[in-house]
Design a protein that fits this description.
Largest sheet: 5 strands, antiparallel
Number of helices: 1
Oligomer: single chain
Distance between the termini: 24 Å
Length: 120
């Protein structure tokens, strides 16, 4: 798992915890499972599982790239959370993501794993 961060515009920024993995042109279906939560959160290892058919939209709560079905540059970006802000650029800027990521790492732990299954 890694973190996707950026700003849509000045004063409008985001951070997504994501799994990034290649699209396989031969796959019929995909499944991701986020596990190994060791932080302050008490998630079951089977709580964050997403399964979808190739060519479909991954059923995540927070899509990272909805216009391309969460695919960019030949890879899926599958998220299970999102933090964002909108407001004055002095309080909402690219630097805000550092604090958000630190909070996610405390909450989830720093060793969250992602298992990706390709179905053929």
């Amino acid at each position: 798992m890694t973190y996707l961060r950026g700003c849509w515009a000045p004063g409008n920024c985001y951070l997504h915890p994501v799994a990034v993995f290649p699209v396989d042109k031969d796959a019929k279906k995909y499944s991701t499972r986020f596990y190994n939560f060791t932080g302050t959160v008490n998630y079951s290892d089977n709580q964050w599982i997403y399964t979808w058919n190739a060519g479909g939209v991954p059923p995540t709560t927070y899509s990272t790239y909805p216009e391309t079905k969460d695919i960019v540059g030949g890879s899926y970006y599958i998220s299970f959370g999102r933090t964002w802000c909108a407001g004055a650029e002095s309080g909402c800027n690219a630097g805000s993501a550092n604090e958000w990521e630190a909070n996610y790492r405390k909450f989830y732990g720093s060793r969250v794993m992602v298992e990706v299954t390709y179905y053929y």
